[in-house]
Amino acid sequence: MTSPIFALFDPTYFLVIIGLVLSMVASGYVNSTFRKYDQYRSRSGVTGTDAANYILQHSGINDVAVTQISGNLTDNYNGQTKVLSLSQSTANSTSVAAIGVAAHECGHAVQDATNYAPMRIRTAIVPLANIGSSLSFPLILIGVLLSFNQTLIHLGILLFSLALLFQLVTLPVEFNASHRALKILGEGGVLTQEEVPMVRKVLTAAALTYVAAALSTFLQLLRLVLLFGGDRDN
């Protein structure tokens, strides 16, 4: 029987390496794309904060506060506190990239206000995904050390699959938020016809990071199944 130590260094570890490379490439691409279009000032002259306030007002959302936080591309929307936080690189910038990022986060606020189903599902499974991420590997490791206890190993793999489920549900949420933002900005005249494709490229690059994260998680799950998913006696 293969020893537990050897199993941890199985060649399938290359699946994890591929996932890490995909995530690094996606992260590098979104950063380079943002820097490129951060050099283009919007013709309207509005800042990221202005764009956010416009979208919220246009969507009839009056209970969301727009605040500024430190950092670079740390923008986020908190549905529990109803706070849309824009990073310094976004809030005061008039670049098309900054407007796009701010608009994307507003897209989440619009989803929240309209009870967008995938967003509700994602919020509901966050606790389960966190539990799965925390307990999956310890359970698998314990199962391996206990002479490949299949019950513990399979339970660990099942818990890890919750992380993949979260990643998959996140994809439509992120793509939809960008779609809503672009539509409002384009129709409202905040962006010109020439600027809309620029913002679309920025938001597409950002969305690819979520795709890469889902692929990376899938590859990790595949590795666990290949290593421990079968019957060790066969």
Automatic annotation (TrEMBL):
The keyword Endoplasmic reticulum does not apply. Pfam families: Zn_peptidase_2. The keyword Cell cycle does not apply. Keywords: Membrane, Transmembrane, Transmembrane helix. The chain crosses the membrane at residues 12-34, 124-146, 152-173, 207-228. InterPro entries: Zn_peptidase_2. PANTHER family: MEMBRANE PROTEASE YUGP-RELATED (PTHR36434). This is Peptidase.
